[in-house]
Specification:
Layout lengths: L7 H8 L3 H12 L6 E11 L2 E12 L2 E11 L19 E11 L5 E7 L14 E7 L4 E7 L13 E7 L2 E6 H4 L1 H22 L1
Helix pairs in contact: 1-2
Amino acid sequence: MGTSTLTLKEAINRGGFYPTLVHHTVTDALDGREAEHQIVHVDTHFDFEEVHRHITVLVLAEDIMVVAHLDDHDAEEDSPIQHEDSAPSASTEVVARISTEVVPVGRIRSLILSEVHRSPDKFRADRGLAEVSLNINWTGGARFDSMPADCGNPECMADHGDTGTVVPEDITLRIAATAEGDTAVDEARSFVRALRRATIKYFR
């Protein structure tokens, strides 16, 4: 199983977001391979009176990395437009949409880990991190988020063109100890170390 402190099933159960469904889907994508390292990351977003959650699971197993995403929402969002005379349902059914991608380790082209250290003047190698950010790219694809540029003068009416940022389309995760605990941060670092070792021969 590698050096992870939790098994894949334990990590998914800890996430607490449809664990039986997530574990079944990820295990199916592994196709008989045994998980060596994993990251299980749950995001929670608040939209007025609604709470939305999203889970991302990364699993390294032998020569592949499995990436799984799951969201849930009301079934009505997937339903055809209803007629005005349709009677509203007494309760709203929830559906979950889960997607998986199997990425050969040899396709990974970029692996970036950013670490946030508390009190860097008192650094110790055995001290936990405040947070880590992970970026993995394997397709070379990116999304360009654009917006009109301005010169800073609120009265200026000139067209200054567009500006924006390039955002990789593959995986970007931020894991903070205050939100997810030191175990989640350590798990992410362990995953990155293992993935580096697995990909290094392809970078040469």
